[in-house]
Specification:
heterodimer; A: mainly alpha; B: alpha+beta; six-stranded mixed sheet
Amino acid sequence: MAEPEETLPEDRAGRGTDFGAWVAARGGALQRFAYLVTGNADEAPDLVQDALANAMPRWSELAEAGTAEAYVRRSIVNGSVSRWRKDRRLVAVEDVEHVVRRHTPDATERLDDADEAWQLVQTLPATQRAAVVLRFYEDLSFAQIALVLDCPEATARSHVHRALARLRQQLAQPPEEGASHD
Amino acid sequence: MTDQPDPGFEREERAFRAALEEHAGDIEPHDLAAPTRPVRRRRTWLAAAAAAVVVIGGAGITTAVLAGGGGGGSGTAGSEQGSSSLATDGAGKGRSNLRGGRSVAAVLPDAASGMQWVSRYDVAVQVPSSWSYAQAPSKPECVQKPGDTWDNAPRHPYVGLDPSFFVMPMIACPDPRPDVPAEFVNLPLSLWQPYLTFARTDDDGAGGVEAGSAGTAGGSTGASGSDGSSTRDGTWSYRGWTLTRWTVGGVQLSLLTRTADADLAARIKESTTRFEVDQNGCPATSDVQAAEQATPSSAASASRLTPSSVSVCQYLRGSDGAGLVASRRLTGSEMGGLLRGIAAAPSGSGPDQGSGCPATASRSAIELRFNRAGGGVPATAYVYYGGCDDGIHDSDSVSRLTSADCRPLFAGAPIMPDVASVLEGVCTKP
């Protein structure tokens, strides 16, 4: 488990900050985080708003402890996990073509590393995806990731390492000749 | 960041960073107002999305032969029935009343010989006793290693477990094989098995639209295909198999049987019954399904009871209407172990999730009903897990979750854990 004294960077902690001011300052970043965790731009604001609504009653306590950002991010991750479980096979119509195209690449097309990485991110289980986002987008340490995900540091490290290993495996694969189902 | 990069993964780290940096710009953040009150907003986004979602693989296929409507019924699952006054353990068995013109059994009668009741929400059906619960396979083309999914495909007739609690990647699935009607499983024919699945069709944003097990082995339950065909009640046949879908209240059932077993299919469908209390003594609705934690009204402390059986009733929290998603009845040594565990549990709540409870509680909660041999109103306790104030809540006390009092609750299907972080090592084996 993360050490109790482990916190997020001071500018995100919320110490001594009015709730409204903190929301105004961090709202955009939190929505980007929610989007990267869920992959759904429509859901991201809702997830953040829900997380803020949950944080509001205990804002004084969170701000004093400097754990506001961690708390809200954890709420976002928990919310994304819940929605992911519920909606795992539902894809908005407007996304279908994009999604199908993404998984049936032209055999002659070699995706670059970042495209492969983004494809992989979207297939990761929600918690692992959050760990990857926290590590490589938010630049958090594993102890900080563990704090946000409320898991042992070793688990956070494992989430990230397995994602790296999977990406390595995918990058090493030659382009496929198209989809085959049977 | 204080940690050193994972040695040997520099290329992969660069790729992740570049991808996330690039796609963080995909979203145009909204101006968010600081909430002024801690009210959980009703998620209307899902209802709105319901009209515009498809279950990938269910779209655009119209080769099925529609052979007539099913049970019909479009009302929502009954939410008005009170559960606290209902007797169990035989009392009132077979009683029924009418609600909305449909017969609702106060308590289900005994199943026919060779059959067993299975239930979800407020609908029960009799299936052969040999059928057991299983997780329906996901579409093989939706995963990167199809063999993994096929290895997990049930090899026996089954009743699909509630899909709410399974963690599966929401990733893209290409078009299904063109020779298989959209309503059917997209699995190799040799792996098809008879099954029954339940799915809520009344999207209230809580239990809502499910594209669960039925969405794979039986089509796209509960969600609309682009032509609207994928959720219709009806009967379809394909290469010796028949799929039947019918709706009762707000619950759609999907049944796959061999076409030669038409009598069995008819028998199963005809047994469909709405209930107030199911075969395991669980009411269709409970106060424990509320989004906020509730306290049972039962006065007796669970640790002091001597019940004849214990009903373990699991509900989807935040559900409007019938929220029962799984039920079991514990007797004998299983019940004894649970009661001893409750009696030995330390007072007070816990274990909660880490320092500071998560804002999002688990999606489910359990009502325990301690049934008395002579019938009468059972004492109840509520079990919360995966959030704040976890524990077994009596009307006047809370006992901590331990492996002795929690594992018996999740020891058998269809009761399923849905928040692994707290349950692992306590309510389930590590």
